[in-house]
Amino acid sequence: MKRVVIKTENLTKVFKTGFRGRRVTALSNLNLEVKRGEIFGFLGPNGAGKTTTIKMLMGLIYPTKGKAWIMDRELGDVEVKSRIGFLPEQPYFYDYLTSNEFLEFYGQLFGLERKELRTRIKSLLALVGLEKAADIQLRKFSKGMLQRIGIAQALINHPELIVLDEPMSGLDPIGRKDIRDIILRLKEEGKTIFFSTHIIPDVEMICDRVGILMNGELVNVGRPNDIIDAKIKYIEIITSGIEREALSHLPDIEVSVHDAWNHVSIRVRDENKLDRVLEIIKDGKGKIISVIPQRETLEEHFIKKIGERRN
Amino acid sequence: MAIAINTFKEAIRDKILYNLLFFALLMIGASLLLATLTVGEQSKIIIDIGLASINIFGALIAVFLGIGLISKEIEKRTIYNIIAKPVPRYQFLMGKYIGLQLTIVVNTIIMGIGLYLVLISNELRWGHSIFNVNFDIWKAIYLILIELMVITAIALLFSTFSSSSTLSAIFSIAIYLIGHLTEELKLIGDNLQNFILKETISLFYYLLPNFDNFNVKGRVAYGLEVSGTYLSLVTLYGISYIAVMLFLSGMIFQKRDFK
What we know:
Helices cover 34% and strands 32% of the residues of chain A. With 311 residues, chain A is of the alpha/beta class. The two termini of chain A are 45 Å apart. In chain A, a hairpin with a 2-residue loop joins strand 9 and strand 10. Chain A has a six-stranded mixed sheet, sandwiched between helices. In chain A, strands 2-1-4-5 form a four-stranded antiparallel sheet, with helices on one face. Chain A has a four-stranded antiparallel sheet with strand order 12-13-11-14, with helices on one face. The model of chain A has no long low-confidence stretch (mean pLDDT 83). Chain A binds chain B through residues 15, 55, 58-62, 78-79, 81-82, 84, 86-88, 90-94, 96-97, 105-106, 108-111, 153, and chain B through 1-3, 6, 9-10, 13, 76-78, 80-88, 255, 257-259.
């Protein structure tokens, strides 16, 4: 069992658009490794090149430059596709089929036996909570239901690697939670999950590692905590009963004070000065209610990065 | 094979098919009416009009469904999820083609039976035995079927690289029409003095399918014999043409990006 499931080397895609063939670089020199058994979140704003990457990995489009391997096979290998489950972005399926027919069709593409297929379909419909919709045509499905049946078809072949393109877009919070739970369950079964999203909390909650893609370039890879940890924005201290006079000792430290009711919230921007601030509060007979480091969320991280790039 | 069956399912749930089929049967039925206006030779007229209807409506079905075969998959983005499965692209293409052929065979047989029934009722009207009906119409229908398969293959080729369904439809219909006029094309070419023009026209003559080969309507209507050798030769011609079209489609399809 190799540890690396997806590997890309300088993967690049340039599209030619319009009559004059203007060249647009959708992805440039992507170097990425996804390891076995991890949930890898591929994060980026719309148009960052996430779908382009996934389409190349799935053999829908061909790279302009660079190489990629999935489970040690180069792109385009048909055999390796039988070990992958894939959910396209905003899936469009044959809507004249019922759930059963639909899953049967995809099962047949993988060459599954009819009998095995029947039990598989049953368990998958249960997994995604669509048992009652087994004989309903897909055209009558809601968006959340379509997304679920999409995940079910991606799992029909017991894949080792599951690639999901924006699996949570367009879903309500409960729908998102359901999908997150399914993803976590798949990880427990030892599967590798690679999914793209622009919704940051989803990534923060379930991903082992995250790659951030912007304007076709990979700008950061790491554990979500590592990416966030490095950037504690400020530490918020909430105190009560502090003598107002004591606050005047604070100015030499980089702080801001918000006085409301009995509570005073103090923001300390420099971690090293935290002890000094706490001492002052104690001296001023203040009671410390909480000390919370406020981290930069990926969302802000994102916006900042985009800002940096624009400048 | 799953793809072929699915394509068949899709086609038979398509409304355009029923519209065209309805009109074809209407035309065949109407031929009976026209035949009553003539003195004698009714069955000849019914066969003539009937076979022509099968041919034209069959071609329309072939072109419209054939064009939609791939472009619809791309427009509706259903193709993404198929190409990502362990199905080689050429197999997908073949599956689609075979699925459509199934539809066309079923349709043509339905139209053929319609024509046959009309002919039988015509014989009965005159108190003749139903065995009087010219069985050779099935030979003509068989050749029409081969012709339709060639047209579908051409339509498929267009739809693998063109992004506009309308354009593909126009091209395919144009080829269908020219294909029926290739003999005239050759005649024009032979009478030309200009060398380049002459060669271009003769190039077209050889490149385009010669649909006249598949046309034995006149012979059948006049009760002339259509030999087995002729049938097999034309079948061979049709299959070779289809093979080349499918090969080209496969090559283009293999290289295509599905953006």
